[in-house]
Amino acid sequence: MASLLLSYEQQFSTLTAEVTQRMGTIHNYHGTERKSLISSIERQLDEAQELLEQMDLEIRELPNSERGKLMGRMKSYQTEFNNLETQMKKAKTTNNANKLRDELLSMDDNGTDDQRARLLDNTERLENSSRRLEVGYRVVMETEKVGQDILDNLQRDRETISRTRQRLRDGDANLGKSSRIVSGMMRRIIQNRLLTFLIMGVLVIVIIIIIYVTTTKQKS
């Protein structure tokens, strides 16, 4: 399981590095080539998301003692992926806005004022939508962070409860051993006292016999 998790991590690191490098070249492409590059990067992001899900499943199968430190690494991977998704959304939005601007600038002198006005209006609306999407995405990310923090706290509480239960079980086991030891000691004490009483009884009988025999001889 550890080797499989390590393989997923290596694949994720390689994939995100390639995505980062390719996203830095988007501005060098235009038209169909740019669209094709963006689609290819989106597919790679889908693969990275699947790797994250596989890593999460593998980590949840590990013992609590190993899970804690790996959850921290998982959280950093998720943050890296979220940042790449944000950059991808910005690149797509910029691509659409640039497309509208190119259409506006490419209009020849025969273009009507009405066409120019519509294109300008569409560009402005697109930019406004982009800003709203960014704000919404930040809210979602903040909510996800709060949710992840809550899950981490619950996980820590669960591990604490598990450790407490284990200590209680160990305590019960120790109490059981102590109880058996005390019971054994009490039995030995009782046995020793009975043996003492038996010896004393025998001695008393022997003394009585000796006295009886001595008295009988004297009378004879």
Describe this structure in words.
This protein has about 220 residues and is an all-alpha fold. Helix 2 runs antiparallel to helix 3. The longest helix has about 110 residues. The N and C termini lie far apart (about 100 Å). The model has no long low-confidence stretch (mean pLDDT about 80).
Features:
220 residues, mainly alpha, 4 helices
Describe the structure concisely.
By secondary structure, this protein is mainly alpha-helical. The chain contains four helices and no strands.
The profile of the biggest β sheet is: none
Q: How many β-strand stretches?
A: 0
Low-confidence stretches: none
Average the pLDDT over all residues and give the rounded result. Answer: 78
Q: Helicity, in percent?
A: over 70%
Overall radius of gyration:
42 Å
Helix-strand topology string: HHHH
Query: Helices and strands: which structural class?
Result: mainly alpha
The fraction of residues assigned to DSSP E strands is under 5%
What is the CA-CA span between the terminal residues?
101 Å
Number of helices: 4
Q: Quick one: overall form?
A: rod-shaped
